[in-house]
Amino acid sequence: MMAMRNAARRDSVATLGKQLFWPSRSFVSKLISATGLPVTVDQVFKAVGPQRDGSEFLKVLGAGHVDEIDAAEYEGASIVHDMNVPLPPEHRQRYDLVFDGGCLEHIFDTRQVLENVGALLRVGGIFVGTTSGNNQLGHGFYQFSPELFYRFFCPENGWGSTAVFLSEHQYDPPRFWFAEDPQAKGYRIEVQNRSQLYLMVVAERMAHPTSLKLPQQSDYVAAWTKNAGIRDGVATSARSASAPLETGKALLRKLGAGKLRRLMPAVFSKRAIGLRQPGIHPMSIHDFANYSLRQSSFGKQPAG
Asked: Which residues pair with 14 in a beta bridge?
């Protein structure tokens, strides 16, 4: 819903895989209230039908045409293509929005999938994807970090307005957080939590460059830049910077600090992510569903 609001056009939409519409009636009601979508809950569930067809929900949101791309025919995808393989010319730059509701982590060649996503979109098109974050080991091939998407969906690769969100969607309503760009913050943004955590990325296709800038983790780039010209400076700097922290952690482990968790109140031992965590900001359903890609930073609209 948020991505469709941000899309300049909605004539043609592609989904990776055949999408299932999973939200509950109570959550859909909250979303409609938060966004002012001019439909009722009954109209939404009538559209998706007993099969909970996600493509039909995209049409409720204004999609003129929806193609489903899958590696196999068994669920009735309109385009059969293995996303490990580059797209054929006839599918390139055809879509205003590409939606991945949870395919990326199941496909081996992550780089090729992300390149294919960019190739599918017209300039001005929107990509929105949701994938595995924490505590889903074995669900797919991978679990992902916000850093990957901030580094790949960058201006040098023809992308802009990139934003990454986190969600614990097993709750009703789901919980949402905005994850800031570690490069902008100047440090790693690491998340620890005890429930399944999904990561969502939204980005706008601004251009189709002829070459790809390979991502590098931002804190290492900063170390390389700071220590340019110093032999082995990166490794030495990284070790020296992390040494006090690692020494402290080792001391706490030796003292048996982990056993103290048993004495902590449940509110701390089962805490949700984002509580007093730098770079992670809790969001209401209203703020998440109405997020604008034109925001210069979280919670702040650009001047003019």
From this structure: 67, 98
